[in-house]
UniProtKB/TrEMBL annotation:
Residue span(s) of domain Glycosyl transferase family: 185-335
Keyword Transmembrane included in the entry's annotation: no
Pfam family for this entry, one: Glyco_transf_4
Record key words, sorted: Glycosyltransferase, Transferase
Signal peptide location: none
Protein name: Phosphatidylinositol alpha 1,6-mannosyltransferase
Cross-referenced SUPFAM superfamilies: UDP-Glycosyltransferase/glycogen phosphorylase
Length: 370
């Protein structure tokens, strides 16, 4: 596995890579992880080769790996059956080049809309087309690309990337569960009993957290969980919200379960894992009608969607849930039911038994012909 991000970083790419590694190990596979940035040189007994890296302005906590000859050497020594590329961009692209040179089949995971994120930052905005061309080039050279949502599959196919398949994400149902709802925490956050509306995620430009200002005149308490470069400015622009900082594990699960409505404001999510975590926690969800949330939220059934380009649409969606507690409870129950088959073991088993198997079979057929 060549991972653009891995523990100790906390983000969607690292989280998915960790769950894939856990399941591969549980199934008896041998694994070598090659990852960007500093960190431990083992994970659960799996060796981790740490590539050289640098920090990007505004994202310094997410190191960007650099091409390193040690990647190809390690790959050649390990002699894998297949190379898994976790959100390939720089070291992932180098890992792909090395795999092709060594004649190894590859599966590339498209997870981050880097071009969409770049447009949110003035110093990167002009580079978005070049970034997309690079992403298309990398994924076009992999034997199979897996995208997490219908929208991202369509984006890649329309962009000319061949052999794209849908592969979603799992959710930890042992951690995220309605039973973790803590009434004491709810009274502490909202002493007057107002409904609690929460956001969980990075506090950065691409997440559009400032849209939560639309909720200022609603009878609710807004809670924001996470950290990032925009935190200070958001605290100024959302003075009535409660900022809880970064939370993890059981603490985060308790916060999720304690919400009445979960809101995600970002427009460039290829999946949006926090919506699944909210659904697993028994909470009604609101997300943008764009990207990954289109697959996760069926409007009126298990949540509501708002129009990213229409001011006030987030306000109306949240107000509808707050004004109708019975409908909100029904949607929360439907969301909880939706995720019951989306466990990480089930999702990774699909990766191995279907996608890995297909790529390995095709590679073996090519070798026979050669």
């Amino acid at each position: 596995m060549v991972a653009e991000s891995f523990l100790p970083q906390i983000n969607g790419v690292a989280n998915t890579a960790r769950h894939v590694a856990d399941r591969l190990l549980a199934r008896g596979h041998e694994l070598l992880i090659i990852a960007a940035g500093p960190g431990p040189d083992t994970y659960g007994g799996i060796p981790v080769l740490r590539a050289r890296s640098f920090g990007v302005p505004g994202y310094k906590e997410f190191p960007v790996g650099l091409p390193d000859p040690s990647i190809e050497r390690a790959m050649a020594e390990f002699k894998p059956d297949l190379v898994h590329l976790a959100s390939p961009f720089i070291i992932g692209a180098y890992g792909l080049r090395s795999a092709r040179k060594l004649g190894l089949p590859t599966v590339a995971i498209f997870q981050t809309d880097i071009a969409g994120f770049a447009r949110q930052y003035p110093w990167f905005a002009a580079a978005d087309r070049g970034i997309w061309r690079w992403v298309r080039r990398v994924h076009s050279r992999a034997d199979r690309t897996l995208a997490p949502s219908s929208a991202s599959v369509q984006q890649l196919v329309q962009g000319g990337v061949p052999n794209v398949h849908l592969w979603g994400r799992g959710v930890n149902l042992d951690l995220f569960d309605p039973k973790h709802r803590d009434e004491n925490w709810r009274r502490e956050i909202s002493p007057d009993g107002r409904p609690i509306v929460g956001y969980v995620g990075r506090l950065a430009a691409e997440k559009k957290v400032r849209r939560l200002a639309e909720l200022s005149d609603l009878n609710c308490k807004v809670v924001i969980v996470g950290d990032g470069p925009d935190r200070a400015s958001l605290e100024n622009s959302l003075p009535n919200a409660t900022f809880l900082g970064m939370r993890r594990g059981a603490d985060l699960a308790s916060i999720f379960a304690g919400l009445d409505v979960f809101v995600h404001t970002g427009e460039h999510e290829t999946f949006c894992q926090t919506i699944q975590e909210a659904q697993a926690s028994g909470v009604a969800t609101v997300g943008p009608a764009a990207g990954g949330p289109l697959d996760l939220i069926q409007p009126g059934t298990n949540g509501l969607l708002f129009e990213p380009g229409r001011p006030g649409s987030l306000h109306h969606a949240v107000k509808a849930l707050l004004d109708h507690p019975m409908a909100r409870a029904r949607m929360a129950a439907a969301g909880l039911e939706r995720v019951q088959t989306r466990t990480w073991p089930a999702v990774v088993d699909d990766l191995v038994d279907r996608h890995y198997a297909d790529v390995l079979r095709d590679a073996a057929a090519v070798r026979r012909v050669a």
